[in-house]
Design a protein that fits this description.
Radius of gyration: 22 Å
Strand order of the largest sheet: 6-5-7-8
Strand content: 5-15%
Number of helices: 22
Structural class: mainly alpha
Helix content: 40-55%
Number of strands: 8
Largest sheet: 4 strands, mixed
Order of helices and strands: HHHEEHEEHHHHHHHEHHHHHHHEHEEHHH
């Protein structure tokens, strides 16, 4: 609590490297445009939670995407965070800071920015305050991911984001150190999300809404703390909390949390962009396929793909290589199926082999073959050629040689018809990649999702997103309120 308050109250935005500020704005823009397009394509959980939020009007509250009507902050946050996460296409971290020995390797995603916007709307703060809060929220949850692996104990990674959300929301609303500590204690003691939400052959709405539901609870905990409710203190050292129960100590916290508040060494600089819709563990395989298509454009000819071998690390092999994911019938399951993701990419290439031949580099291929929501819709899920290509794909665990290279990179190799991509460590979008023109690829993604969600309103919204720090408190009240351009629903389950 002390660190969060100091970082927001004593530090100025201009003390943070411009590169950090820009990267945060890119991740935020990515999140918002993902969310607006998910609403526009009538996905279930985001629209359900949007309608639910509208039942909780609050003239001093926050707004949901596509509306200027103010509602209870926790409801706006739940709706917006659910929308942001629905496509599973926004940013990712891998919890890796080897210079300090902090290599827990926990996942995490940039799902929590709606907390910062909502708190600023409630308290009359500006876009500059919101941007600084976003960097701080990513810092707290990103550094927690480096020091404590929730997945090792079957707890969902969104808990780190919920802890960060409670702290940052409280600081923006004027909480004391003790009140922030109390709210974090309540969040951890009362609201631990288990990875049961991600288990099973066909995943449900809970998978995409996990961050939303946990953060709603964290914000409510902070609101109660502000009103005087006392939660358990010192939750990281509490002998009965999950941290010390799973990693016993003699009384101390099982980890040290090293946080930045100025300069350039921020967690967000190590986070990774998804260049389309896919589970982040598949990024190395996608890059391998694109490298092979560039070198051997004949692989894009219809029917050319006869045999594919993917070799990767744990946890990729266990999560998206799970044999239960070989026959997905929902979008949420398909985007966690390595065989499905690669099959769709190869089918997109076979649908336009001339574009593959004309590509000047893999940046062109990322842009031309970018996986979008319809690649996970009913037509794609039942496409016979996609199913045929899926049947050609084998997935193998690379063993210790691959495992030791994660989470530094995403060690993966792909062979198609015997042609070998070689080892891929840092695919485009990964923070360690230095070859791809990241902003060029992101601009294509932003435009596709932005026009899907906003139509002709996309350019104005993109400009607001990329100039967030210039928005006044009054302008922030109408942030994200551009009308959603609703289209056909993307989801249909089949069996």
């Amino acid at each position: 609590g002390r660190f969060v308050l100091h970082a927001l109250q004593e530090r100025r935005l201009d003390e943070i490297d411009p590169a950090v500020r820009r990267r945060t704005k890119l991740f935020h823009a990515d999140a918002v445009l993902c969310g607006m397009s998910a609403l526009a394509r009538r996905t279930n959980a985001p629209n359900l939670l949007w309608r639910e939020a509208m039942e909780y009007e609050d003239p001093k509250g926050a707004t949901v995407f596509g509306s200027r009507r103010r509602v209870k902050a926790e409801k706006a946050i739940a709706a917006n965070s659910s929308a942001v996460r629905e496509w599973d296409s926004n940013g990712t971290n891998f919890g890796y800071r080897p210079e300090l020995g902090h290599t827990a390797g926990e996942f995490g995603h940039n799902d929590f920015y709606p907390v910062c916007i909502a708190a600023c709307q409630e308290s009359g703060r500006t876009g500059a305050d919101a941007l600084q809060a976003m960097m701080l929220l990513d810092e707290v949850r990103g550094r927690l991911a480096e020091v404590f692996s929730l997945k090792s104990y079957k707890i969902d990674h969104v808990l780190h984001g919920a802890i960060a959300s409670a702290a940052v929301y409280g600081a923006l609303r004027g909480a004391t150190e003790e009140q922030i500590e109390s709210a974090i204690g309540m969040t951890v003691a009362h609201h631990v999300p288990w990875r049961a939400i991600r288990a099973g052959k066909q995943l449900s709405d809970s998978k995409g809404a996990s961050a939303a539901i946990s953060t709603e609870a964290a914000v409510l905990a902070m609101k109660r703390s502000l009103r005087g409710f006392l939660g358990p203190a010192d939750i990281f050292r509490n002998p009965e909390s999950l941290f010390r129960r799973f990693e016993p100590t003699e009384g101390d916290s099982p980890f040290d949390l090293v946080l930045s508040e100025a300069g350039s060494d921020f967690a967000v600089m190590g986070m990774h962009f998804k260049l389309g819709l896919y589970e982040h563990q598949s990024a190395g395989a996608l890059q391998g396929v694109l490298n092979l298509l560039l070198a051997h454009p004949e692989l894009a000819q219809p029917g050319a793909v006869q045999e594919v071998l993917v070799t990767a690390y744990e946890p990729a092999f266990g999560i998206i290589g799970d044999p239960a994911k070989r026959n997905p019938s929902t979008r949420q399951s398909a985007d966690h199926s390595m065989v499905y993701i690669l099959a769709r990419l190869l089918c997109r290439a076979a649908a336009d082999p001339e574009a593959v031949r004309e590509a000047s580099g893999t940046d062109d291929l990322w842009i031309r073959l970018m996986l979008m929501p319809d690649d996970y819709g009913h037509v794609a899920l039942t496409d016979p050629e996609t199913r045929r290509v899926m049947d050609t794909i084998r997935f193998e665990h690379g063993g210790p040689e691959f495992d030791r290279r994660y989470p530094e990179g995403i060690p993966t190799s792909v062979q198609i018809n015997g042609l070998d991509s070689g080892l891929i460590m840092f695919p485009a979008g990964h923070a360690g990649n230095r070859e791809a023109d990241l902003e060029r690829i992101l601009e294509s993604k932003f435009e596709r999702l932005g026009r899907m969600g906003l139509g002709e309103g996309f350019e104005a919204e993109r400009d607001r997103l990329m100039n967030l720090e210039a928005l006044t408190a009054e302008e922030l009240l109408s942030f994200g309120s551009a009308p959603i351009q609703y289209g056909d629903p993307v989801d249909q389950v089949w069996s």
